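Entry for the shared binder. Reason: the reviewer on the internal report wants the predicted structure included alongside the sequence.
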Amino acid sequence: MKRTYELVVIFDPKPETEVREERIKLFEKLLQEKTTLLKPEEVWGKRKLAYPIKKRMEGIYILWTFEAEPAQIEAINNYIHYEEIILRSMAIVVTKKKLTRMNTEA
């Protein structure tokens, strides 16, 4: 059963812009292959972290909203685990209430 998810990923800001953008595009391509994207990515930009992650004090935040099977989320998490440029990520299931609110805002 497909569910709607929001995935926030914090990318390392240290690699050169071209390298980072290439890695982000590869990650988005993986999302397009494994899921149905509902909204374009939301780039929240570079933000200060509350505590160091992998010796970094800043990260670039990007949010994706998509539909996927739970098994596909597992595959995405496996990719994230081995990708060095990703500092942290979190995927949550969107509730029906929030989904309704998102649809009325669009």
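Summary line for the report: The longest strand covers residues 36-53.
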